[in-house]
């Protein structure tokens, strides 16, 4: 293993024992083991810390990091030594043993500053088919036509020095805000394969508060509207349609 690892994998935990095993397993099985694993723990009281302690490999634990998920993710970025940073939360896991190897190859082939792959959603124990990946452009993303799934994002660490990290004032759309800042200076290289399984459950913040999440997303996209005003206008139409549907679905 190199003194400076290729990857820094950041996992935020808080009483995550029920799902963390899948996360750890998926990393143990990676054919590329050139990574450090940074755990950012918010004060777990269950078996989470014992599971982390039993996990072999190059790892560090940042204890008692409070102030929300954005602050926790930023703490992981700040602690990272690797050339490439990824966030793999304790609800999620890599879909295959060659994920990190494939991502490293895509970085080498493309020379890109960040790489984006696809995810599958695990809902009620069943894997949903992955959505087709659309070609990326800043305008397509600003309009809401292209997606960037956070669990399948890998970023060269020096890019954070250029654009900053997650906005800690945001609760739902901190990833969209960061992707818009990243894409404004360097478009991602796309990797059209499922890299990560995202576990959806009732406790997921954006799932439990869909109206509030949409409202914050709108405010974030409006921040960046000047870079692609026509694309933002297209997004506004989609936003109004989605909000009407969400409000109609709310119980009386």
Automatic annotation (TrEMBL):
Name this protein carries in UniProt: Glycosyltransferase family 2 protein
Entry-linked InterPro entries: Glyco_trans_2-like, Glycosyltransf_2, Nucleotide-diphossugar_trans
Pfam families listed in its UniProt record: Glycos_transf_2 (PF00535)
CDD domains linked to this entry: GT_2_WfgS_like (cd06433)
Positions of the Glycosyltransferase 2-like domain: 8-134
PANTHER family, sorted: GLYCOSYLTRANSFERASE, GLYCOSYLTRANSFERASE TAGX-RELATED
Keywords per UniProt: Glycosyltransferase, Transferase
Classification via Gene3D superfamilies: Spore Coat Polysaccharide Biosynthesis Protein SpsA, Chain A
EC numbers: 2.4.-.-
Molecular-function GO term, any one: glycosyltransferase activity
Top-level taxon: Bacteria
């Amino acid at each position: 293993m190199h003194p400076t690892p290729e990857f820094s994998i950041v996992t935020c935990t808080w009483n995550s024992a029920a799902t963390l095993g899948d996360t750890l397993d998926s990393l143990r099985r990676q054919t590329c083991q050139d990574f450090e694993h940074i755990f950012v723990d918010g004060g777990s009281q269950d078996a989470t810390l014992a599971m982390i302690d039993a996990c072999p490999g190059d790892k560090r634990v940042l204890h008692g990091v409070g102030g929300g998920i954005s602050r926790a993710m930023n703490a992981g970025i700040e602690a990272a030594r690797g050339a490439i940073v990824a966030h793999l939360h304790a609800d999620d896991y890599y879909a295959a043993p060659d994920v990190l190897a494939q991502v490293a190859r895509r970085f080498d082939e493309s020379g890109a500053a960040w790489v984006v792959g696809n995810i599958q959603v695990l809902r009620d124990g069943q894997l949903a088919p992955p959505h087709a990946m659309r070609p990326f452009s800043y305008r397509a993303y600003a309009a809401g036509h292209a997606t960037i799934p956070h669990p399948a994002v890998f970023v060269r660490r020096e890019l954070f020095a250029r654009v900053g990290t997650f906005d800690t004032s945001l609760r739902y759309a901190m990833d969209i805000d960061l992707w818009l800042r990243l894409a404004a200076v360097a478009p991602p290289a796309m990797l059209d394969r499922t890299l990560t399984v995202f576990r959806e459950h009732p406790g997921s913040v954006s799932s439990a508060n869909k109206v509030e999440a949409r409202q914050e997303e709108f405010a974030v996209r409006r921040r960046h509207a000047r870079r692609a005003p026509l694309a933002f206008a297209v997004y506004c139409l989609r936003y109004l349609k989605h909000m009407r549907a969400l409000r109609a679905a709310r119980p009386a």
